[in-house]
């Protein structure tokens, strides 16, 4: 995760700001976004499933989330100053207060052992986990130091240094099985459009055995991971079209991303966003135009 002025790009608007840092070498951190938002009335945002883990350091109050809008706004909401989220199959609802500042990272799931000290599968059950419970007391100290800094460059540099130290000390966690690592790479190369049979033959494991070891590491099956990757590509294509001021060609996007047809894409959008593609894009248009979306995904940004 780069921390220099060259590596960071900023997009500002009337009452908010999004600042991006370069991804980390080796793909451990896929994206890093600093965000600042103020002056809006309290709102509810949909955090979408993706093929990446979520790590958020809130620099204001805690991040408040729920599995449904009612849960997010009610007494059973999850609250965390440092948010760790696993791979999920449905949206998370996030309360956006009038003021919020933080840094959100999209973390490669196979880097969970090195960066978080546990396999990604251990994060698959809860909606989110309080990061200090996973990362330890040092993470809480890092959060306080981040809050005391004024520049995004300094914040990214501090966070990069902290994560590098954690990764360097990760040998005790053991390695990801090579079949699982290769299976993930194969799915990514095929952008989620490959078949389980083809993947199984590629890594020389039966479909049943591959699904078991893959899920034990990541918390999802290869088929679920493929769907998340395919959806990520489709959503990114639609977002880019909106950001460019054009109307997304959803049928064309469906064909390019390996969906059977337009209705297949709509079904995945409804599962992962709780809305049709058109309705979700209309809801998120302001965030898209403000530069809130990038390579990773996202409870907050």
TrEMBL record:
It holds the Pfam family HTH_18. Residues 195-283 form the HTH araC/xylS-type domain. GO terms for molecular function: DNA-binding transcription factor activity; sequence-specific DNA binding. Keywords: DNA-binding, Transcription, Transcription regulation. Gene3D superfamilies: Homeodomain-like (1.10.10.60). InterPro entries: AraC_XylS_family_regulators (IPR050204), Homeodomain-like_sf (IPR009057), HTH_AraC (IPR018060). PANTHER family: BLL1074 PROTEIN (PTHR46796:SF15), HTH-TYPE TRANSCRIPTIONAL ACTIVATOR RHAS-RELATED (PTHR46796). This is Helix-turn-helix domain-containing protein.
């Amino acid at each position: 995760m780069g921390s220099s002025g060259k590596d960071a790009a900023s997009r500002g608007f009337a009452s908010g700001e999004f600042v991006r840092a370069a991804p980390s070498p080796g793909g451990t951190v896929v994206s890093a976004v600093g965000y600042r938002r103020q002056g809006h009335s309290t709102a509810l945002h949909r955090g979408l499933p993706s093929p990446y883990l979520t790590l958020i350091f809130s620099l204001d109050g805690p991040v408040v989330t729920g599995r449904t809008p009612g849960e997010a706004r009610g007494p059973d909401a999850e609250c965390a100053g440092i948010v760790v989220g696993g791979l999920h199959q449905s949206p998370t609802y996030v309360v956006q207060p009038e003021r919020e500042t933080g840094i959100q990272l999209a973390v490669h799931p196979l880097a969970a052992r090195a960066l978080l000290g546990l396999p990604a599968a251990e994060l698959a059950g809860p909606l989110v986990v309080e990061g200090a419970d996973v990362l330890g007391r040092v993470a809480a100290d890092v959060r306080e130091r981040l809050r005391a800094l004024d520049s995004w460059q300094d914040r990214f540099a501090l966070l990069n240094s902290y994560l590098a130290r954690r990764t360097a000390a990760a040998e005790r966690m053991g390695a990801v099985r090579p079949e699982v690592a290769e299976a993930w790479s194969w799915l990514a190369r095929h952008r989620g459009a490959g078949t389980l049979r083809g993947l199984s033959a590629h890594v020389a494991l039966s479909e049943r055995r591959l699904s078991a070891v893959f899920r034990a590491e990541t918390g999802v099956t290869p088929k679920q991971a493929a769907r998340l990757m395919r959806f990520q590509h489709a959503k990114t294509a639609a977002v880019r079209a909106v950001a460019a001021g054009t109307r997304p060609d959803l049928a064309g996007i469906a064909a390019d991303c390996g969906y059977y047809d337009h209705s297949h894409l709509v079904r995945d959008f409804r599962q992962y966003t709780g809305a049709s593609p058109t309705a979700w894009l209309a809801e998120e248009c302001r965030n898209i135009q403000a530069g809130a979306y990038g390579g990773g995904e996202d409870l907050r940004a």
